[in-house]
Amino acid sequence: MDSQERARSNILESYRFSAEDILENIYHAIIVTDLDGNFMYWNEGGERLFGYKREELIGRKASILYPKTKRDNFQRDLERINNGGMMTGQWLGRAKNGSWIWLDVKTRLLKDEEGEPIGIIGSACDIEQQKKVENRLEESTARAKAILETTVEGIITINTRGNILSFNKAAEEMFGYKEEELLGKNVKVLMPSQHKENHDRYINNYLRTGEKKVIGSGREVRGKRKDGSTFPIELAVSEVKWDHQKIFTGFIKDLSEKRDLEREIIQISEEEKRRIGQDLHDGLGQMLTGIGLMSQNLAKKMEANGIPGATELKEITEMIREADNYARTLSHSLTPVEMESGGLKLSLEQLCSRAQKLFDIDCVLSEGEEVILDSQTVAIHLYRIAQEAISNAVKHGKADKVEIRLQCLEDQIRLLIEDNGIGFTEAGKNGSNDGLGVHSMRYRAHMSGGDLHIGENRQGYTQIECLVPESGKQVKTNKSNMLL
């Protein structure tokens, strides 16, 4: 044996311990009982954990470590170990001073060389701090769940791939889905088609650039229920980091009742405007027409008889005619869309004609399908959007050319207004666009069940696009007068 081997042998010999030495130096409790559960061995770790000295336990039943209310379980556990050979799990033990201790327990049968059971050995590790943390986490989770389940707002969480992680009870009632139906699915299932295409682009753009367009702000969009119907919602999105991952939380308010009430108010307002416009046309307009004719006849008689004042009366007659025209213009603006006399297309043509005269611009309605809406309220909303868009284009965008298109898409009606002005961005820089007009247009689009998009076309023209559901529309092509 060389010197290195001799040194290694001396080191190993100096660290050679007996099995009992090893067990005594283990920090956890080590317990050995006979097959009947009587203590045969109890290490120092057990003394520290339970408070019993070795001499207090040797020969006694291990049931002393069970809480008083659980000691009936001792015999059952003993039989299970003797039959199955092993038992593991978390267990509530009782110390000498009466306190309870949460333990991680592992037990198994001891066998001799022939494989015959001769006793039971077990280890117990104190997990009191772990259980406290788990209990606090459970309490926190329970409180959070209680808040989520009782809040009137719909709350949805998704991961960076758009997959749904949670869906609270209020969201279930809004959308008609149960949480288990949606977990793991992409949140796009809750969006109408016009929003689906933008969703992944928003998330990917944010993850790539960090630019927040939706996160941290509220906006009105439309949600899609399980039955396919859509409804207006207010959506606010926040971002949190959880377990080294980003999670997005959407807070949702159902605006259906609010929008229904607003729709009724607007409808009442539009009906009142219509009544006033009709009164202007049939009442004041007719009176002014009559007065104008009488004044004109009187002026002719005065002139024929050489009576002084005929010239002044002619001027008064002209002023009455101008007042009559102005009253009729007001009447048409208050009653912009007559369903029975040409519908929205004719009203838009008249709007373009008046804009050309009033603003001295080139304003046209492009030829295409004629869309007749059964809902006069929606028709009026679209008319007002076009009216506001033209006004913004001229006053803020400094445009001298405006083109309007009214089209039928697969499942939507499209109103498109394009102008060659400086656009909303440049107008905003000049401080001339306070956003009220845009807000009004968006509001009317939402009230019609649709959305408003502002951008530019390929030629750089400002483009305002309003898309509303096809519900209630009729289409009349230029080739036929039949309603399809």
What does this protein look like?
There is one protein chain. The chain folds into 4 domains: 3-127, Beta-Lactamase (2-Layer Sandwich), CATH 3.30.450.20; 151-254, Beta-Lactamase, CATH 3.30.450.20; 256-335; 339-484, Heat Shock Protein 90 (2-Layer Sandwich), CATH 3.30.565. The chain has 15 helices and 17 strands. Helix 10 (256-304) packs antiparallel against helix 11 (310-334). It has helices at residues 3-14, 19-24, 44-50, 54-57, 73-84, 128-150, 169-175, 179-182, 193-209, 256-304, 310-334, 343-359, 376-395, 423-429, 436-447, and strands spanning 29-33, 39-42, 86-94, 100-111, 117-126, 154-158, 164-167, 218-224, 230-242, 245-254, 362-365, 370-373, 401-408, 412-419, 451-456, 462-469, 473-476. The chain starts with a helix and ends in an 8-residue tail after the last strand. Strand 9 and strand 10 (245-254) form a beta hairpin. It has a 5-stranded antiparallel sheet with strand order 2-1-5-4-3, sandwiched between helices. A 5-stranded antiparallel sheet has the order 7-6-10-9-8. Helix content is 46%, strand content 25%. It has 484 residues and is an alpha+beta fold. 23% of the residues are buried. The model is unreliable at 426-434 and 472-484 (pLDDT under 50).
